[in-house]
Amino acid sequence: MDKHFLQMLATARSNKVATTLGMQDFSQLKKDNGKEQADVIMKITGNIISGQVMGETAKHLSERFGKIMQDRVDAPARQTTSGRGKLTPFLLNKQLNCVLSHAYCPIDF
């Protein structure tokens, strides 16, 4: 892809024309267009539909979708009774988790 292709995408978008680009993996886009052009294309993408991906593509998507605060219920390893015969309660916590479940999930973006 060259500058003309990116200009065509921008022109189409300004005229409310929807375009769809398909690729198997981010590395394929980089190989065919160079890192700089591939980064531009990935950054101007509005909607993403993805199947299973790995490596740099998974990392990119995980960073792009971000994190979400989720409720978490922790149960004790064993249900025990406290001194007054009551069961130990479940613990309710909040936890920041990646929206996309992937091995790559940094603590801070």
Explained architecture:
It is a single chain. With 109 residues, this protein is α+β, with helices and mostly antiparallel strands. The protein has a domain at 66-75 and 89-109. It has helices at residues 3-14, 26-33, 35-44, 55-65; strands spanning 67-74, 91-98. Strands 1-2 form a two-stranded antiparallel ribbon. The protein starts with a helix and ends in an 11-residue tail after the last strand.
SSE layout and pairing:
Layout: H1 3-14, H2 26-33, H3 35-44, H4 55-65, E1 67-74, E2 91-98
Helix pairs in contact: 2-3
Structural class by helix and strand composition: alpha+beta
Integer-rounded radius of gyration: 22 Å
Biggest sheet architecture: 2 strands, antiparallel
Total number of beta strands: 2
Number of helices: 4
Uncertain segments are none
Task: Compute the separation of the termini in Å.
Answer: 30 Å
User: Strand order within the widest sheet?
Assistant: 1-2
As a percent range, the share of strand residues is 5-15%
What is the average of the pLDDT values? 77
Shape verdict: elongated
Helix content range: 25-40%
Give the SSE string. Answer: HHHHEE
